[in-house]
Amino acid sequence: MATRAIQILAVCPYAGLDNIIRKVAADYPQFEITYEDGELSKGVEIARQYAQGQVDAIISRGGTARMIASAFKIPTVDIGITTNDLISALSLMRNAPGQKFCLVGFYEVTSIARYLDRLLDRPLPVFVTATAEENIALMKRLREDGYELVIGDATSVRFAKAEGLNQLMITSGEDAVRQCLNQVSRLFSMQEDNHEILALQRNLLKNLDVSFFLINSSFTVIHSQCVSDDLRDLSSSVMQQISVSAVKRFLNGEIPDRTTFERDDLTWQITLRPDILRGENVTLVRWEKLNRLYLKSRSLLKDISHATYPFQVESLRARDPKMIEALSDCRAFAQRQSPVLIVGEPFSGRQALAHMLYNLSSFGKGGIYSLNALKFTEDNLCSLFESRGSFLTSLSLTLVVRNLQRAAPELTTLFLNYVLKSGFTRHSRLICLFDSAVDPRNEEAVTLTRFLLSTLESLLITVPALRERKGDLLFLATLALGDSCSVYGKSCGGFTPAAQEIILNHPWSGNLHELRGIIRETTAALDHEYIDAPDLEHALSKWQTLYRSQDACNPASGPYTLPAHDFLKGTLEEIENRILLAVLEEENGHKSRVTQRLGISRNTLWRKLKELGVN
Prior knowledge:
Blueprint: E1 6-12, H1 17-25, E2 31-37, H2 41-50, E3 57-60, H3 62-71, E4 76-78, H4 83-91, E5 101-105, H5 107-110, E6 126-128, H6 132-144, E7 149-152, H7 154-162, E8 166-169, H8 174-190, H9 196-205, E9 211-216, E10 221-225, H10 236-251, E11 258-263, E12 266-277, E13 280-290, H11 292-297, E14 301-303, H12 321-333, E15 340-343, H13 350-360, E16 368-372, H14 378-386, H15 391-394, E17 398-402, H16 409-422, H17 424-427, E18 429-434, H18 443-455, E19 459-462, H19 470-488, E20 494-495, H20 497-505, H21 511-525, E21 530-531, H22 533-552, H23 572-586, H24 591-598, H25 602-612
Parallel strand pairs: 1-2, 1-3, 3-4, 5-6, 5-7, 7-8, 15-18, 15-19, 16-17, 17-18, 20-21
Antiparallel strand pairs: 9-10, 9-13, 11-12, 12-13, 14-16
Helix pairs in contact: 1-8, 2-3, 12-13, 19-20, 19-21, 20-22, 21-22
């Protein structure tokens, strides 16, 4: 009789660990591995979902593995860090001379690092932590002492990131994963696996964050937990009736496994999941309360409270004077209640500065949300500002608005009037992102800017483009390389001098988006120890080909593909069309600005664009 495969849950605290595990697991046919991403408490929640007899063992790393092991009786094995893993991380710092950095981690990580500073051209400060409280206090002290980078395991870099420090994570390599799987194999050769019913009971009877009903195949409630504050407005009997009805409809295929239910002007989400308890088929009904306004406006309003950005610019200790000024302004303005206008090219770090304002401020801390002004309509603005109980007008939060200078003028005016009428800036922070400086010939843009700076008394931050920050380029590239190595499971020693020259001299018109993309592209294909000039040149040529191909398909790109002496060739109509498309491109598609510059009516512009096939 065939032996049942051992079911393993791999909870990966960082991206890229699953790639290493998949590669090594090919040599272990006795294992069937399920992969999930989650760190610390999130990893525990993921493990809880599988702790009902669905897995025989769990593998994870560092603090996440410890927390899972303490929460469940399912065997949990830690994927460690080898000396080679630590050396790979430290070797990257040769590409960032002059940066002040240190190594932070649990004893298992730091114990093998005490003699490794001889590999570097400078001493390696090592700090040992054992608890979250120690990590928090240490990161604050490191920031005050001027450290620019923390090297550590997933837990350490998470605390460093929370404090605004840059980080490089020590990733586990193939040897560490192989040691972990060997330990699991030895474990299951000595003991039998029989945790299904116990795991399910633990999951149902404790540590469940939402209220639930457990209903058997006869549609009888055999267990319930109705103590959640979120459900205080509904009686247990009403919840039970709705739960039983939902189970019947779910089993009959009438409703999906996740649906919403409205009662008393509130919206609830019901999640149904079939399961087995003591050999009997049961259905678990989970209840959660949702924010009704957010459901109505979710296509417009994006919660970015937990979003991550390419680099933590706050702790960069920038060399470029313009970036130093932007960071200084950000720190100063964080404790001011005034709105903030951040001007700079796309992907130059404006979103990260907005997050920095939010993190450093004691004002507007009820969450940070992003709003795209190009999606404004009268209806959704009304729902955001006039709906009863709207959290946008009743809570102290931070609102980041993009593309305000490109939205329809009448909708921009409506939005700003709502901001004034509702008193939004008295209890919340408004941050507006502009892509470029204001053209004084554009009356609408000038009016909008005057309103923000004068009427709303906004403070101004200007972010320099990446090509203006040559002193920061190698450090930013090294951070991107460390991130890409963890994602693709690669070990790279950094950049050769020729590759560094390319990084320093490339214009980086796509700013951080392009830099990270090129480094990611290069790392994914890398099969040697250092990134060299041909590696970067190949990735750069691929990106340039992509954008040239996109331009060739865009009618608006026509004038720019012609040499200057060919621009006036052809008929008068052809020349006029080139001029029209050129101005349209310069004004970023803003129709009102185009009509003002060319002295034509809006109807004429729409007709000509329709003839040219431009939307």
